[in-house]
Amino acid sequence: MAGYTHLFVPGPTNVPETVRQAMNMPMEDMRALDYPLLVNGLFTDLMKVYRNETGRAFIFPSSGTGAWEAAIANTLNPGDRVLMSRFGQFSLLWVDMAQRFGLDVDVVDADWGTGVPVEIYAERLAADKEHRIKAVFVTHNETTTGVTSDVAAVRAALDAAKHPALLFVDGVSSIASIDFRQEEWGVDCAVSGSQKGFMLPPGLAFLSVSQKALAANKQAKQPRTYFSFEDMIRANDTGYFPYTPAVQLLRGMRAALDLLLDEGLDNVYARHHRLAEGVRAAVSAWGLQICAKEEKWNSDTVSAIYVPEGIDSADIVRRAYQGYQTSLGVGLNKVAGKVFRIGHIGWINEVMMCSALAATEMSLLDCGVKIRAGSGVGAAVEYYSQAAKPAVAKAA
């Protein structure tokens, strides 16, 4: 078929042309004398994105799941009690990993469409007078349901209870897209991956840690090799890695960090919010509902949208791809068949979102959903045109 295939899933996301060109390179020597010039700059700027001023960052050649594992294996021990919550497929998987590591997991199950239950966390932390809880886990952005949780509020709960537990955050689909302040919020282990807001192909896991997490590492007895902090620190301190890094992805990472920092992180967050609001305006105009149960849970990187009774959301995703060369996200686990997802994350703008909404509208109509053609696109256009009018050069 003619034209481009359009990508509007919540990850992997669109890769900017400058990033793709940076990766289109002859293979290079990762032990070259000047390689630390690249590596050291990557760590410095990655810390800026995390807003981590006193800790350090790690870059692993893996998916974000590898950074989940690195955080647990390097700071905790079998039998350690941890506080976690489940409210979507990815928070569920993180709980599963913690259990496989032999942690004593206190799981709070929350409704899908809500986020981390801060009030319950606060109660359990306040009741834990013996400080048996060694870590508290937060899935910042749950892509299954399009829900964002309040990390700062969890930090406030820890502080109110005067609790010393480590704070772990899964920021795979939030960091570099949604406001994140590691130092200010006292986050000890913050996980992300290359294929979301960092605008890279899959293949790199990022983990930014605090000095408190590095101290905990010295007491951690979990077996680890590939994800060892100790091995990484020894090599990274010389500007290299303990094993062959993903050299082309690192060159792309340099270009992606330049784009993020040149735009300015606050502008990046504002752009994601603006794009998300336009999508939410379209959903409202269609007469449909998003999965997030309250406005406070709305995600600025992905919207999960309920379909009417009698409609299979997988049919809409299938129709969008086969009929209109557009990839939307399917529903997962408890919401499979009930929702489809539109990703509005990474290298993306208003016109691109309008094309996503147009493909979605056509697919909804084709699948028998009773909406008015143009209603969602029109609502988004009206919002975008008012929310961010471009500067118009005056005629000389």
Describe the structure.
The chain is α/β, with parallel strands linked by helices. The chain is 42% helix and 14% strand. The chain has a seven-stranded mixed β-sheet with strand order 2-10-9-8-5-3-4, with helices on both faces. Strands 1-12 form a two-stranded parallel sheet. Helix 7 links the parallel strand 8 (166-170) and strand 9 (189-193). Helix 2 (35-50) packs across helix 10 (247-263). The longest helix has 22 residues, at 265-286. The relative contact order is 0.16.
Secondary structure layout:
Layout: E1 6-7, H1 17-23, H2 35-50, E2 56-60, H3 64-75, E3 81-86, H4 89-100, E4 104-109, H5 118-127, E5 133-139, E6 141-142, E7 147-148, H6 151-160, E8 166-170, H7 182-185, E9 189-193, E10 205-209, H8 211-217, H9 229-236, H10 247-263, H11 265-286, E11 302-306, H12 313-324, E12 326-327, E13 339-343, H13 350-366, H14 375-387
Parallel strand pairs: 1-12, 3-4, 3-5, 5-8, 8-9
Antiparallel strand pairs: 2-10, 6-7, 9-10, 11-13
Summarize the structure.
This protein has 396 residues and is an alpha/beta fold.
Q: Element order, helices and strands?
A: EHHEHEHEHEEEHEHEEHHHHEHEEHH
The 3D shape can be described as: globular
Distance between the termini: 44 Å
Mean pLDDT, rounded to whole units?
97
What's the tally of helices?
Answer: 14
> Would you identify the regions where 5 or more consecutive residues have pLDDT less than 50?
392-396
* Helix share, percent: 40-55%
Characterize the main sheet: 7 strands, mixed
